[in-house]
Predict the 3D structure of the following.
Amino acid sequence: MMEHRGHQAQPNRKPQLGLPEMRNNSSFGSIERTVAIMTMMQAVIGQGGFLVLLLYGGTALLFFGSVHSWSRYYLGTGPDPLTYIWGLNWWPWAIQHGLNPLVTRFGWYPPGFHTAWADLVPGGALLVLPIIELADAVVAYNALMVLAPALAAWCCFLLLRCLTKDILASVLCGYLFGFSSYELGHMLGHLSLVLVFPIPLILWVAILSTSAVRARGRFILLLAASLLLQFAFSLEVLATLYVAGGTAWLTTMLCLPDHRKRLWILAGDVSIATAILALATTPWLVYMYEGRNDVPETINLPAEYGADLMNLIVPTGLSHFGGATFESVASQFHGNIAEDGSYLGLPLIGILVAWFRKPDPHGPVSRTLLITAVLLMLLSLGPIIRVWGRPMGTWAPWQLVLHLPLIRHALPCRLSVYIALLTAIAAGLWLASARNRMSKVRRYGCCLLAIALLFPDLKRFKWSPVPFVPFFERQNLERLLGTTPNVVVLPLVPEPNRVYGSMIWQFQSGMAYTQTGGYLGNPPPESYRWAVTSQLVQGVAGPEFAKDIEVYAAAHNVTAVVAGPGTQPSLLHSLDELGWDNESLAGVHVYYVPRAIGPAEPAPS
């Protein structure tokens, strides 16, 4: 049985955000306190921790699971999930075949593409490697997507259990983070952005490290390992983590002057952990530098994807309660339904305000959390502040980071993940500090209302059929194209309302061909040196199409142009007019490049 020890014995004692009390002699910890912390960590996991994980996992499976075949359908819509599936397959496949996984020639052949710049989730591949080996990358992708919110909620539960010592409050508020509007939005198909469970773990380790003067080394290594895990999931999330962490650190320095010495120690520990992270990822960083020309000057447009101020209180169509009612209003938000994930709801905002106004020793901590959350909200608005989709024309804090490396490519609206975590922490501490039964009833009722307003509209989370095509089975490819051909697969890039499967077809073939193209992000800027690239991207042949594609095919050792389902009819007509030998199979048209202009050398395996 799980024993729950509340605060009845000490009604005036409040949780202090995991920081030990300052003694009169200004001691900052001892070996006994370190042992107590490690014991507490073991107790957190042991006292119902895995039962809570099963609870969250069952909830995620109920919300997002499917009775469809997990190897023939995928959770999400659009082309991004197909690229993630390709990526999950790529990492173990490349290593098993003795290839450098950080550069692939199976996309944009012959120069290839630096996968260090692609969002291919190597950490996810490692996490579900047994599933990839026993089943395939499609099943592995679905498993990660369904488990992601459960893992995020569970890790937030572990953090809150450490801070509040209250299991019920931790369970409820762990849900607020794991199933937040941010997480629900990216459950539409952004695998790298839903794997955020290391964030509360990093905060947990950081808090514990401030109390472990004589055991700092182990916490620095834990911190470095947690940062490495988040790096392996998403470099963008890691970059925004430093922005959010820096904001929280500066705010805490101002609001908690008595803790400044320990905060400076924490800054040193984070710096050492970051140095360890940089050392561990040196090959990755080197290839990122070498492949900097594979990506455009600006990968994302921050001005297009800032949070709308009204999104804090107005839900999108992903919310079961109020989503349909306010859908016409939410449609005015400037981003899209996946990125408009800033919704908290009035009950959760009310909890923040109520906790901030508590006249007790918790005041400095509550003030720190609230100010940090407000600052992050301002940053999440992006370089242009919008209300109801209309720009206000005022200066916005995000303009300060527009020219910084890495972080300038991030979308500011995605900072809402940290706002969700801070509000979950505030709500957990607020619930745990209730002094009497009536206060608990009111507070838990408010928290349950907040959870209800975040309940997802389940019909929005669709499972899509994987667009496998019989043509791309290995035996068909080898019969028509020979072994290890290099081809141009059309459509070259995804288009709305059209079938696209360049990467998934290559996965289906067992990586039986290389391709000059592939959706690994934006086409490399270098590819636009060739006139035909824009024509293939737009699906409209230019006046010199025949000459342009012949030059392109010769320069890139292309053996055939393969027009799959979704290729624009006008482009098919232009290919027919080339006069090249061609044939069709299972709805796929193959145009063989004439030997006179064909590849100068065979495409390598």
